[in-house]
Structures are given as structure tokens and as C-alpha cells.
């Protein structure tokens, strides 16, 4: 990667054209929206609502299906040298393995395993990210079906994220993405007296999520030795530096695209550089994990 910013999953879809546009606007890497084996429609609109603390979304994990996903990743790689991360999800452990095997045909630079979305009715009756043994079984299934590096995306909605992180590391994960949305939350239209989202409830992202994400990354960094992509509420260079100091190797940017535009990646990188010059940091490695020294 040329810089530590990454387009987070689920923000700007799967199409090569959209992801190339993000790469051209300064992202160090891009992540596809999560892709499943079969095509999936997701929830009806409205699926996103903003509030003073950020966003709430319930898109419902719409997916073009693995065949279309493979073609879009291949097309992106033909048009851009920026690393691409393919995000996958499934409702069964075996399907995670099959999805990893299939998406590997497109040769993405990394596979992100989304075990943390509440919209999936998992075979065990709860999200895969909520149980250390189940999370580990998914990581192992994916690793057994690909030679591409694998990052597992964790949920903040657990009692002990360190336990989950350690379990996926021991199962062979090459890294961790932390975190997915928090909640669920709800916003009600007081004129109609109805929840605004079609699904009523959704995951919370943006500024409201950042302190939770920072804490999660901080705890994970103290627990595992594999790299972390810190995601959740990164709006500017200051936020990115905070996440890096908590222990992230790179930062995922999502909601900020809405608030600051498609060139937010360039803006955040410039702001990180300004901070480094002002505080006399010569290398990003001097920032990563810095908060653990004090």
C-alpha cells in the first residue's frame, strides 16, 4: 500500500468502476462490498439514515453473487494497481470456505471474512463473531480453501473481543479487521411516529462508533501479533492517528466518504502528514501502537 487508508467494505459497492474511482482518489487499498455465493437483494429502502452522531444502516447485505463478484475484482485488477480486498460472507461455515475458494479465482490481494454482520441468519442461531469457537471454525475453513492472506472482520457487540481475536489468530488468520457497526440502533420519525429504516433497526457507524472501535483495536493489539485494520468513525487525520496509536496497521474509511467526499483518502493522508511533521514523527511505524508505551 502507498498509504494506510483503505475503503471499508459496504460503502461504494462491488463494481470495478466505483472501486477504481476510489483508488484514483487516493485510497491505499479498496475493499469490495461483502459478496456471497448467491445473489441477495437485501432490504428495501430506506436503508441508511444519518443522525447527529453518525449513521445507522440496514442495507441487508445485498450481494451480486460470487460470479459477478469474481468478474468485478478481475476487472478492477486490470484497471488499477491499487491493492483490492475481497469481502465475503455466508450463512454456513462450509459456505465461507466455498466462497473463499471461488473468490480466489479473481486473485484479490486479500480476503476479508465478514463474520460480524447481524443481517445473516447463521447456522448456529447467532452471529459467527459472537462465539470464539465458531469464529475460529470460519477462519480455519477459509484458510483451508485459499492461499491468499485472510483477515477476519470482528464485531464490537461482544463481551470479550480479545477472546475472539485470539481464537481466529490461532485458527490461522493473517490479520484482523476491527470493527463492524455497533448496535443495533434506531431512529424514529416523530412526525409519523415510525422508525425511519425499513428494517427499523440498523448498525451504527461514524463518530458514535469511533471510541468503541478505538477500544476494540487497543485490546486486540495487546492480545494478538497479527496486523489490524482499524475501522470505525475515521473522519480525519487526527482520527486516523488515534486509531494507529491504538494499534492499527492501517485504517478503514467508510462514513467519511459521505461527509467529506470521495477524495477523503487524500485529505486524511495529508492531515496525517501534517501531524507527523508537527510532532516530529518520521515514520508511521513510530505511531503504530504508540498508546501502549504509556
Question: What key phrases describe this protein's structure?
Answer:
single chain, TIM Barrel, 294 residues, alpha/beta, 14 strands, 8-stranded parallel barrel, 9 helices, 4-stranded antiparallel beta sheet
Would you kindly provide a brief summary of this structure?
This protein is of the alpha/beta class and 294 residues long. It contains 9 helices and 14 strands. It has one domain (5-293): Aldolase class I (TIM Barrel), CATH 3.20.20.70.
Structural account:
- The chain has 294 residues and is of the alpha/beta class.
- It has one domain (5-293): Aldolase class I (TIM Barrel, Alpha-Beta Barrel), CATH 3.20.20.
- The chain is 34% helix and 18% strand.
- It is built from nine helices and 14 strands.
- The strands form three sheets. The protein has an eight-stranded parallel β-barrel, surrounded by eight helices. It has a four-stranded antiparallel beta sheet with strand order 3-4-12-9, with no helix packed on it.
- Helix 7 (237-246) links the parallel strand 13 (228-231) and strand 14 (250-253).
- The two termini are 29 Å apart.
- The mean pLDDT is 95.
CATH C-level = Alpha Beta
* Global mean pLDDT: 95
Structural class: alpha/beta
Number of domains: 1
Largest sheet: 8 strands, parallel, barrel
Q: Would you list the SSEs in sequence order as H and E?
A: EHEEEHEHEHEHEEEEEHEHEHH
Task: Determine the N-to-C terminus distance.
Answer: 29 Å
- Named CATH architecture: Alpha-Beta Barrel
Number of strands: 14
Computed over alpha carbons, the radius of gyration is 18 Å
Major sheet: arrangement of strands: 1-2-5-6-7-8-13-14
- Could you tell me the CATH topology label: TIM Barrel
Strand residue content? 15-25%
Amino acid at each position: 500500500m502507498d498509504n494506510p487508508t483503505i475503503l471499508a467494505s459496504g460503502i461504494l459497492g462491488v463494481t470495478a468502476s466505483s472501486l477504481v474511482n476510489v483508488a484514483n482518489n487516493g485510497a491505499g487499498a479498496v475493499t469490495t462490498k461483502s459478496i456471497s455465493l448467491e445473489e441477495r437483494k437485501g432490504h428495501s429502502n430506506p436503508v441508511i439514515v444519518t443522525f447527529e452522531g453518525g449513521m445507522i444502516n440496514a442495507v441487508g447485505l445485498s450481494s451480486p453473487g460470487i460470479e459477478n463478484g469474481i468478474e468485478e475484482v478481475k476487472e478492477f485488477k486490470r484497471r488499477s494497481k491499487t491493492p483490492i480486498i475481497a469481502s465475503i460472507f455466508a450463512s454456513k461455515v462450509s459456505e465461507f470456505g466455498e466462497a473463499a475458494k471461488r473468490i480466489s479465482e479473481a486473485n484479490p490481494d486479500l480476503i476479508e471474512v465478514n463474520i460480524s454482520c447481524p443481517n445473516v441468519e447463521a447456522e448456529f442461531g447467532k452471529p459467527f463473531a459472537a462465539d470464539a469457537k465458531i469464529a475460529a471454525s470460519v477462519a480455519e475453513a477459509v484458510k483451508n480453501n485459499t492461499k491468499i492472506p485472510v483477515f477476519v472482520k470482528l464485531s464490537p457487540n461482544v463481551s470479550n473481543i480479545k477472546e475472539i481475536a485470539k481464537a481466529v489468530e490461532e485458527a490461522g488468520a493473517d490479520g484482523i479487521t476491527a470493527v463492524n457497526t455497533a448496535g443495533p440502533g434506531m431512529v424514529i420519525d416523530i412526525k409519523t411516529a415510525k422508525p425511519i429504516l425499513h428494517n427499523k433497526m440498523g448498525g451504527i457507524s461514524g463518530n458514535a462508533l469511533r471510541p468503541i472501535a478505538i477500544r476494540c483495536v487497543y485490546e486486540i493489539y495487546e492480545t494478538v501479533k497479527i496486523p489490524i485494520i482499524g475501522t470505525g468513525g475515521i473522519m480525519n487525520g487526527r482520527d486516523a492517528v488515534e486509531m494507529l496509536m491504538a494499534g492499527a496497521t492501517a485504517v478503514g474509511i467508510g462514513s467519511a466518504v459521505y461527509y467529506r467526499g470521495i477524495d477523503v483518502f487524500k485529505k486524511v493522508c495529508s492531515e496525517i502528514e501534517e501531524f507527523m511533521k508537527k510532532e516530529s514523527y518520521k515514520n508511521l511505524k513510530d505511531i503504530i501502537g504508540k498508546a501502549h508505551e504509556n
